[in-house]
Automatic annotation (TrEMBL):
Lineage: Eukaryota, Sar, Stramenopiles, Ochrophyta, Bacillariophyta
Family matches, as InterPro entries: Coatomer_esu, TPR-like_helical_dom_sf
Record-given protein name: Coatomer subunit epsilon
One Gene Ontology term of the molecular function aspect: structural molecule activity
Taxonomy, superkingdom: Eukaryota
Compartments, as annotated in UniProt: Cytoplasmic vesicle, COPI-coated vesicle membrane; Golgi apparatus membrane
Function in brief: The coatomer is a cytosolic protein complex that binds to dilysine motifs and reversibly associates with Golgi non-clathrin-coated vesicles, which further mediate biosynthetic protein transport from the ER, via the Golgi up to the trans Golgi network. The coatomer complex is required for budding from Golgi membranes, and is essential for the retrograde Golgi-to-ER transport of dilysine-tagged proteins.
Keywords: Cytoplasm, Cytoplasmic vesicle, ER-Golgi transport, Golgi apparatus, Membrane, Protein transport, Transport
Membrane topology recorded in Swiss-Prot or TrEMBL: Peripheral membrane protein
SUPFAM superfamilies: TPR-like (SSF48452)
Main location: membrane
One Pfam short name: Coatomer_E
Amino acid sequence: MSEPDELYTLRAQYWLGHYQMALDEAKSIMRRPMSPELKQEREEFVTRCQIAMKDYDKVIAGDSPGLNALALHSQYATLASTGDASQTQTVIQQLQSMLGDGASPSVQLTAAHVFLQAGMKKEALQCVHQGSTLEHISLCVQIYILLDRLDLAQKTLQLLRKTDEDSMLTQLASVHVALATGSSVAGEAVHTLNQISEQYGPSPMLLNLSACAHMQAGNYSEAEGKLTQAREEFGANDADTLVNSIVVSQYQHKPIGDLAAELKQHYPDHFLSIGLDTVGGAFDREAIKYRV
C-alpha cells in the first residue's frame, strides 16, 4: 500500500502532531494538480488538524460523508468539553447511523476516534478491525494495547510492517508496542523517537512519547526534560503533558500539588482527576476519625 507523494508530507506532519505545519503544507499544495480523491483527503486532513488544535468553530460539514463525520467529531469534542453527556450520546448515535454497509474508511476512522473518546473501545475496534487502510491498522494496534491484548497488538504491528515498513505510522506503532511491552525494549522506543525528532522536529506528542519511553527506562530526569520542553517551547497544557508531568514528579519525589490542581481545573473528567478526588475524599473522611 503506497502513499501518494502529493500528500506524503501532509500526512506525516499530522501523524507526528505538527498540526500547524500540516495546515501550512495543505495550503501550499492547494493548487497542485491531484485527483478528486486526494483533494478530498487533503480537506479531511485540514479538518482533522483543526479538531486537534481545538479550533472547533472552524469546522463545518462538507459535501462528503468523511467531512460530515469529522463535523460530528468536532461537535462531540465541543459538547464533551462542556460536560453535556446527553448531547454527546446523540452525536454517537448519528455516527453509528453512518456506519452501515458501504461506509467509507474515513467515516469508519472518525467514528472509531470518537468512540475511543467515549470509552467505547470494542465499538471502536469494530470500525477498523478489517484494516482497510494504514490508519485503520495503526489504530487497531493502539486499541489492542488499551484492551490489554499486547499479543494482538504485536501481531497487528507485524501486519503493519508487511504493509508498509517505512510508513511513519509503522514507526509510531512500534513505539507504542515497545512502551506497552516494558523496560526491556524502552531503549528501542527512545532511539526511534530520537530519529523521528531529528528528521521532523519535536512536537508535544513526540515529546510526551519520549518522556514515557525515558520513564520506562528509568531515566526520570530525561523524561522531565522532555515534558519541560513541551510546556515551555510549545505551551503544552494538554492532559497528556500534565499527567506525565505528575507521574515523573512522583517518581522523583517532587510535589505535584500545582500540577494536580491544573489537571483538575482544565480536565475534571480525566480519569486521574477523578481518581485524585476519590482518594483525597477518602483520606479526608478517614482523617476526621482521628481528630483530637
